[in-house]
Write a structure and sequence with these properties.
It is built from eight helices and seven strands. It is α+β, with helices and mostly antiparallel strands. Helix 1 packs across helix 3 and helix 3 packs antiparallel against helix 5 (about 90-105). The longest helix is centred in the middle third of the chain and has 18 residues, at about 90-105.
Length: about 210
């Protein structure tokens, strides 16, 4: 029998409220070169200054739902929003906060185009109950180690246990094949005159 140590498997954990900022900073690092995000916020100083606020407004409902996950000490993070955790008042507050951020960081001549792209993304959201993945990312210095797949499998196992579908928007075409390997299918393509393409993707209930 070999005495070689067995490497630790990356563990997925629910993000504690006290660690919310850690998860959001991981997302900020992961999305630093994301085509859509950096189209919205192309200036590095604005991105780094507003990144945590942007992602909290976009996917922060996951923390209240207890479905924000991290892997291997915040090497990666995923913000999932399960059905039944939609709060109209909280959603309106988050939308208002996100809109205010856009006003602060997007040049006035670009604001209408940015808003149209985001509104079209919203139009693809399924009406029926489903798990929604607004954000998943791995810190660039930890990429290529399977952390993203680990986060995805962990949440999708819960979707399958509940017999529910899942939905996401791929803001980077390079990630489409990864999501397809996990059972997601492209629903359409969203793109404006100057924006990169965004692909809404749906995974049927298992």
């Amino acid at each position: 029998m070999s005495d070689m140590p067995v490497p630790d498997m990356p563990e997925v954990s629910v993000v504690a409220h006290a660690d919310k900022a850690k998860a959001l900073h991981t997302i900020v690092a992961a999305f630093a070169a994301d085509p859509l995000t950096r189209w919205v916020v192309p200036q590095a100083d604005s991105y780094l200054t507003y990144g945590v606020r942007i992602f909290d407004a976009f996917g922060g409902a996951a923390f209240a739902a207890g479905t924000a996950y991290e892997v291997s000490g915040f090497a990666g993070a995923a913000l999932w929003v399960p059905p039944g955790h939609e709060d109209e008042a909280a959603d309106e507050a988050a939308e208002e906060a996100f809109g205010q951020i856009l006003v602060e960081i997007v040049a006035p001549e670009r604001l209408d185009e940015v808003t149209r792209v985001l509104s079209e993304m919203q139009s693809y959201h399924p009406v029926d109950p489903c798990w929604y993945l607004p954000l998943i990312g791995v810190d660039p210095c930890h990429q290529g180690q399977g952390f993203g797949a680990k986060l995805m499998k962990y949440a999708l196992a819960q979707c399958d246990a509940q017999g529910l579908p899942a939905y996401l928007e791929s803001s980077n075409p390079a990630n489409i094949t990864l999501y397809e390997r996990h059972g997601f299918e492209v629903m359409g393509r969203i793109q404006s005159a100057s924006s990169p393409p965004v692909h809404p993707m749906y995974r049927a209930a298992r």
